[in-house]
Design a protein that fits this description.
Blueprint (H helix, E strand, L loop, with lengths): L7 H8 L4 E2 L11 H8 L1 H10 L2 H16 L11 E3 L2 H14 L4 E5 L4 H8 L5 E4 L9 H8 L4 E5 L15 H12 L3 E5 L3 H6 L8 H8 L3 E6 L12 E5 L4 H11 L5 H16 L3 H18 L4 E4 L7 E6 L6 H9 L3 E2 L1 E2 L14 E5 L4 H18 L1
Parallel strand pairs: 1-11, 3-4, 3-5, 5-6, 6-7
Antiparallel strand pairs: 2-8, 7-8, 9-10, 10-13, 12-13
Helix pairs in contact: 3-12, 4-12, 5-6, 5-11, 7-8, 8-10, 13-15
Length: 384
């Protein structure tokens, strides 16, 4: 069955049927003590949402989100469009690119949902290797040498590798923006994993929108709550374009949906505020603890942990033995009831480099995660 699957999402659907699901990056960890208090208050949140105007709930959510993330320059602004999933915001972005017949360069590797959405809308991205972004002193020149399209589409932090331009503070983003301004490129930023940079004590976030708006670059920025908190997939995505693009993006967005559920907005806002109060501890501790456990339990096996720049909620492992491919390893561990994602799909333009990697999801209950790792280690050792 797994050999016939078209994309990573179809793999994740299969993984949801398994006992040891280490595939999808959705949040399956348990609630923290303060989050349990939010769950206990769900009836009150429901009735509060009934009695509160939609616009008030939307503004409250956006203000709480951007306050948590330190993006103060867009707090209280009118440019941010909400939807109930990051995929919807990506579709709106892709529709804009298709309408304007803009060609796109997209970072590789990245989650295959992005190129798939674009292709389904008639936009066929060309790859930009992530390595182009690794050295801030060379970013500008390497983009000049690499990008031949109208738009540049980056994912930061990147899924699956955990790379971020924040590695060198503001410099990486500044160089990308400088290139886009000088060469008249539209910059599209998928920031859906940005909460993990915020939670990582080595990084945090500076006010990126202040940089973007001050530079004059044309941009579309996508953010999300879906991979951050254990919300049973109740979530909200944010799309913020530069002022010149807002009218067009607004018109496309309203053709797709009216609004996000007022109850979901009210519910998710409480989780955002909770993370403001605990400084992202509930997110950081689960991910960091499970990453450390994965490294410990898989040490000395076929799988070699690839250290991310940002401690995102997925772990990227290289297969040490050149004779074992990711596709083969995936099949053999799946037969033992453990589901990981093969790296082939992340290398969306050419799957061959992805045969050296697999991805594990970390947003899991630590006790269940430990049992899944034990089963994975047994299966991996049998492949050696």
């Amino acid at each position: 069955m797994t050999e016939r699957l078209l994309d990573l999402t179809q793999h994740e659907i299969q993984a949801l049927k398994t006992r040891h699901n280490l595939a999808d990056a959705h949040t399956h960890q348990r609630q923290s003590p303060t989050q349990r208090a939010i769950v206990a208050a769900l009836p009150d949140l429901w009735y509060e949402a009934e009695q509160t105007p939609q616009a008030v709930l939307e503004d409250r959510f956006k203000d709480a989100f951007f306050q948590l993330h330190g993006q103060h320059s867009v707090r209280g602004g009118e440019r941010t469009l909400l939807s109930y999933a990051a995929s919807i915001s990506t579709i709106v972005t892709g529709m804009y690119l298709a309408q304007r017949q803009l060609s796109v360069s997209l970072v590789e590797p990245c989650f295959d949902n992005l190129p798939d959405v674009l292709k389904n809308l008639g936009v066929h991205p060309v790859p930009v290797p992530e390595e182009v972004l690794h050295d801030p002193a060379l970013i500008y020149q390497r983009l000049v040498e690499t990008v031949r399209t109208d738009a540049l589409f980056l994912v930061d932090p990147n899924n699956p590798t955990g790379f971020t331009l924040l590695r060198h503070g503001r410099t990486g983003f500044q160089e990308v923006v400088r290139y886009c301004v000088d060469h008249h490129k539209l910059l599209v930023l998928d920031l859906c994993f940005a909460a993990f940079a915020l939670a990582d004590p080595r990084f945090g976030r500076f006010d990126l929108y202040e940089l973007l708006d001050g530079s004059g670059v044309r941009y579309i920025a996508l953010e999300d709550t879906g991979k951050t908190w254990p919300l049973q997939d109740a979530k909200c995505s944010l799309l913020t374009p530069s002022p010149d693009l807002y009218p067009d993006l607004y018109n496309i967005n309203t053709s797709v949906l009216l609004d996000v559920s007022p109850f979901v907005l009210n519910f998710v806002t409480r989780y955002v505020q909770d993370s403001t109060h605990d400084a992202m501890a509930s997110v950081r501790e689960v991910v960091a603890g499970n990453r450390e456990l994965a490294q410990k339990k898989l040490h000395g096996s076929l799988l070699e942990h690839q250290e991310p720049v940002v401690d995102v909620s997925v772990a990227w492992f290289r297969i040490r033995d050149e004779r074992v491919t990711a596709s083969e390893l995936h099949r053999r561990v799946a037969a033992r009831g453990v589901y990981v994602l093969p790296g082939t799909y992340f290398y969306w333009s050419d799957p061959r480099p992805g045969e050296r990697y697999v991805r594990l999801a970390l947003a899991r209950d630590p006790r269940e995660f430990a049992r899944s790792l034990d089963r994975l280690r047994e299966a991996v050792d049998d492949c050696g």
